[in-house]
Design goal:
By secondary structure, the protein is of the alpha+beta class. Helices cover 35% and strands 35% of the residues. It contains 4 helices and 6 strands.
């Protein structure tokens, strides 16, 4: 399987503007700029998209891990915070809230650790990845 996205940028790094389009067209010429990346401008930015990718990938992997252990989640909600410092992504922190009938805390924590270590996006990153999980 291969997926793709295209970025187009015009102008300088600070005053220029760009847009992103994904293969699925979910993002279709979606605006990004210096302000949307480093200030409060309108549009998306690479770090926000990285956070969405990690949250989505981890959450789906956790569902698969839980299913393999005999559990089905009623709901898994994951927030991902990406930290960018001095031009480097230094961490990705996952905050997970899940409702999983019949699971105990130890089995849930083990499933979270497995998903954190083995989702494809976690494997892609060369950064510190942490997670905190709440079983509700």
């Amino acid at each position: 399987m291969k997926r793709n996205a295209t970025a187009v940028w015009n102008g300088t790094g600070k005053e220029g503007t760009g847009h992103l389009t994904t293969q699925s067209n979910v993002l279709n010429k979606t605006q990004y700029s210096f302000n949307s990346r480093f200030a409060d401008g309108i549009g998306t930015n690479p770090e926000e998209l990285v956070a969405a990718a990690h949250a989505g990938c981890f959450t789906m992997k956790l569902s698969f891990v839980l299913n393999a252990a005999g559990f089905t989640a009623d709901e898994i909600s994951t927030k991902c915070d990406i930290t960018l410092e001095d031009g480097t992504i230094t961490s990705s922190h996952l905050t997970v809230n899940a409702k999983v009938p019949g699971i105990d805390q130890a089995a849930f924590d083990a499933s979270v650790a497995d998903a954190k270590a083995n989702c494809p996006i976690s494997k892609l990153y060369n950064t510190n990845i942490t997670a905190e999980a709440v079983l509700g």
